[in-house]
Amino acid sequence: MFLGINHYLDFQKQKAFNSFAAEFMPKKATQKRRKTIAKKRIDARKKLWVLFVILFLSLIGIGFYMKDQVIFYYAMHFKGKEKHSLRNPKTEEERINKIVSLYSDKVFGIDISHYQRKEDINWKKLTIANGSIDIRFILLRATMGKDGKDQHFDEYWKTSQKNELIRGAYHFYRPKEDPVQQANNFLETVKLESGDMRPVLDIEKIPRNKSLDEFRSDLKVWLKIVEEAYGEKPIIYTYYYFYRDYLQDDFKDYPLWLANYNDVDVPSDKAEWRFWQFTEKGIVNGINTKVDVNVFNGNMWQLKGLTLD
């Protein structure tokens, strides 16, 4: 009985103590606990906001990076087809579309000469891929050999600048003719300005009356004269196999513009190329004849790195 009474008294004492402690002691502990909980909530919210900002900025970055591909995809699959009088065989059309799709985030351009009539060109409508990709640069044939000049060069040169295209001029090299005279012909005809692309040497044939060493030596003469005139290494244009067989070992220091019309994803898996002429049957909005279409392996900022200061 006494044991039961003692237990009861102990219980009442503990209850009284707990009541006293609840009244006086836990205020500070409770406040501290509340502050800790509140701080944890604030920290959690801050973390959520940081994650939200990171996610938001990531989506913007991805969208900016992918915008060209998205525009291209929409234009090719959902936008109504723009009418054009020219057509390509289905295999060539598919090959061109595949390359344009692979490089839709790069910069595209064309090269023309007097083979394209003035009346066939609407300079304000130059686009490809169903209007989703603007033509941003143009290469113009300026001279051929020691005394040849493209009859449309002067007009095309001025018109391309008026239409805010990055313009470039190329010389068609004739291997049997004197390289000094050929270089002078180019320099007398072409007056490159700041913002114009570096001069381009178009090499497509080997000489019949000279050795390959003499041929390469002549090319170096032309390149040296023009480089000294403009202070920048000229760009070399040629076909993939021609470069591989005749030029590769001696001209690696020059920016390379390769022509390759095969069903490939890159014009060369070995040579470091800057431009790829991937078709000579390009159908461009604004031109009523097929043209050579090129892609620059980079963005506009990188392309401007190949222009004159």
Quick synopsis:
The protein has 309 residues and is α/β, with parallel strands linked by helices. It has helices at residues 2-24, 26-77, 90-102, 153-162, 179-189, 212-230, 240-247, 300-304; strands at 107-112, 127-128, 133-144, 148-149, 166-172, 200-202, 235-239, 256-259, 275-282, 291-296. The protein is elongated and about 100 Å long.
- What would you call the structural class? alpha/beta
Instruction: Provide the succession of SSEs.
Output: HHHEEEEHEHEHEHEEEH
Percent strand equals: 15-25%
Please tell me the overall pLDDT.
86
- What is the radius of gyration? 35 Å
Task: Supply the CATH architecture of the largest domain.
Answer: Alpha-Beta Barrel
Strand segment count = 10
Strand order of the largest sheet: 1-3-5-6-7-8-9-10
Alpha-carbon distance between the two ends:
109 Å
> How many structural domains in the coordinates?
2
CATH superfamily of the largest domain: Glycosidases
Helix count equals: 8
CATH fold call of the largest domain: TIM Barrel
The coarse silhouette is: elongated
Can you tell me the residue ranges where pLDDT is under 50 for at least 5 consecutive residues? none
Q: Helicity, in percent?
A: 40-55%
What is the CATH class name of the largest domain? Alpha Beta
